[in-house]
Amino acid sequence: MVNAAWVNDDIVVLHRTGEGGLAAKKFPAQYTCYLRASDVSNEDLRKLRDWKHIKALKREGSWWRLTWANWKVLRKACEKGGLFDRADIPTFEADLHPVRRFFTDNPIVIARPKRAYIDLETDSRKPIAQTIDGRSRILCWSIVNEHGEKIAGVLEEDTDEAERELLEDFWYELKSYEQVIAWGGDDFDFEVLKRRCWRLGMEVNLKRWLWLDHLTLFRRMNMSASESGDEKQSMALDSVSHAILGVGKAPVDAALSWEYWAAGGAKREELVRYCVRDTNLMRLIEEKTGFIDLHQKVCEVCTTLPDSRGVNPTNFVEGYLLKLARERDVHFKSKFSFDRNDIDQFEGAYVMEPARTGLIENVHVCDFASLYPSIIITWNISPETYRPDIKLRESAGSRPSYLSHLPLKEYPIPEGHCAALNDAVFTTEFTGVLPEALIRLLELRSVWKEKKNAEAPGTDKWKEADRRSSGYKIVANSCYGVMGSPFSRFYEPAIAEAVTVSGQWLLKKTIAAAEDRGYEGLYGDTDSCFIANVSREAFSAFVDWCNKELYPNLLNERRCMRNAIKLSYEKQFRRMIMVGKKRYAASFAHYEGKDATADSKPEIKGLEYKRGDTLRLARQFQHQVVSKLLYEDLDQEQYTALVGQWRQRILEHELELEDVVMSKRISKPLDEYKQRLKKDNTLSSRPAHVELAIELNKKGADIRPGQRIRYIVADASVSPMKVISDKDFDGNNFDRFYMWENLVYPPTQRVLEAVYPGKHWNSLLKARPRKTRARAPAKPKVDLRKNGSVLLPGFE
């Protein structure tokens, strides 16, 4: 199957034929919910059978399956305040979209679609918001397929008839493909196409294609794959293509697209070439990253359509778990809407305060393999195995006040159950859906890793095995997240916390065991332990002992029936700069047993070099200092001289736009950035990039959540500070002092202070000249003499 859509009361499936073509087939849509058989009395069944809105009532294992006449009556009966809610009968999977219901009930295989990358150029005379609303004419389009074949169309005349012909050609060419990919497509291209066709009176079945926003997918995949903040600085196509490919867009100003088109001839052709080049850049980015291919494998594993919605982990994990649960006679509670009142806070991962900071030699790191999936498997954690009715300690509110001074009673873990470290109890009498899913996923990942290792690196078979292995890993690692997300039907804070606090317990026990042997427990974070003062051989033996003795004994105490916990000796750092929690840089001695080489890049975590919202010069400066600290043996005076050179460069030398521009993301709609009233009855300032975004929005720019605002601090000596758009940069209108004191030096200063503690580094911070206050005029002398009396000397 290539695609599926809910049309009227049918599921229309687009599937591949034996000849490689496409065919459509209709199946009746199923408007279904489940009721637990034990919750339904005979009287309830009689009423349900007599109700005209229910088409079928069928027993499936320990459940009653109700098939309704239509989607509207199903929702009305099962939503909050509906028939079943009033009768106190919980419903299960009543909210499931008919397409997802079809995927869950049937043996579907997701086929790889034929891809088309697209781009549009529109009339630039109207603001972006009006363009997205379909009020601007489409001037040209381009399509590039995954083989690099290109085709484009351009508007012949400024008329509706000519534009209809242009779009008819576009839809005709697009019929050869099944998946449409555009950079920022959800926010622009796809919406423009839909609304423009509507305004022109064109009927197009948009459900015929899978619509994938390349930007959304790239941002999610690139968060962990990027090496530095340069790749996160901007998600604009030009910036990403420069970072990934080393080339960018054609030198055409898209804000003048109408002028290019109206000029005709060579200028119009230049606009078309610009459009085609943009489209082809997406194809080249995919060739380099393979993110779309990886997304496809995830969707195949989870029976999820490879479109923009399929990028969300909640959607693809749901697809996998629902299908497996149906095999196991398990169903999940209905979840029609997200209710903020249902959100409960729960304890997260453990991050240890570093035992010491600065430059540290020979640090050994062990980590738990797939810690959260392993904990879920070990404790059999799943919504249907959770036993909230079993308590391991007496509730403080269950006893009279005169007994409050006595310690609370504790109860043993019942037979056939195990307990997490937050005292959540899970049955061990059968394997839960979530552990079963993870067991399968991890086994399949291992299978494909072996197949990958058996192939020559870089070959088609190697790439296929690598992406399948990575796909299974992504799904497995996302399974925990759905239990902690209030948007997910699997949301259960107590279960999510059972995973995190059990992980804390294992990490703390491991560090304590290392310290009992005389090693230094330097640092711990979620699933990794950093240990110093130990040899490589001794640390390897310690890891083996943990797996063979420590963890089995610990898990027996919690009555776990299975042990999936495994500690691995991951790496040794030759030299490490520990700055603070989640902030360090280190050079490798070896990684997974393989010795580091001269080409081995350092591991950098949490430092500004890795962040996209920091200044480029700040990243470069910090990276230079970190590299010297890790690989060279300089003294403090040499670093002082280096700081002086950078200080002079910032304060005196000519700097480029990319050296001074900042980039920060708008995280929510602009009208949600409120100004609070301060004690002096003045309004608080909003963040500088938000103020600029509001100003640009008033001028017609369409600023949306997720968009990055590029700005320059023009003057920070005033309040609120003055910022300007990057387009207003003239080479001199920026605040050099602010750059040095607040943006460039502090990230590196923190690193140097960790390695060489002392006040010396702070003396190099201040650069802004002190304001000179004008002297107050001298007060006129007042003659206090009366009646001709004379003041004594010294009292004039």
Write out key terms for the chains shown.
7-stranded antiparallel β-sheet; 5-stranded mixed β-sheet; alpha+beta; 39% helix; Nucleotidyltransferase, domain 5; globular; 24 strands; 796 residues
What can you see in these coordinates?
By secondary structure, the chain is α+β, with helices and mostly antiparallel strands. Among the domains are: 1-30, no CATH class; 33-94; 115-289, 2-Layer Sandwich (Nucleotidyltransferase, domain 5); 658-733, Ribonuclease H-like motif (3-Layer(aba) Sandwich), CATH 3.40.1820.
- Helix content range of the residues, please? 25-40%
Tell me the overall shape: globular
Provide the low-confidence segments as ranges: none
Label the structural class: alpha+beta
Report the average pLDDT across residues.
Answer: 89
Biggest beta-sheet profile: 7 strands, antiparallel
How much is the radius of gyration in Å? 32 Å
Range of strand content = 15-25%
Please write the CATH class name of the domain at 115-289: Alpha Beta
Strand tally, please?
24
CATH fold-level label of the domain at 115-289: Nucleotidyltransferase, domain 5
Whole-Å distance between the termini?
Answer: 103 Å
| Second-tier CATH architecture of the domain at 115-289 | 2-Layer Sandwich
- CATH homologous superfamily designation of the domain at 115-289: Ribonuclease H-like superfamily/Ribonuclease H
User: What is the overall number of helices?
Assistant: 23
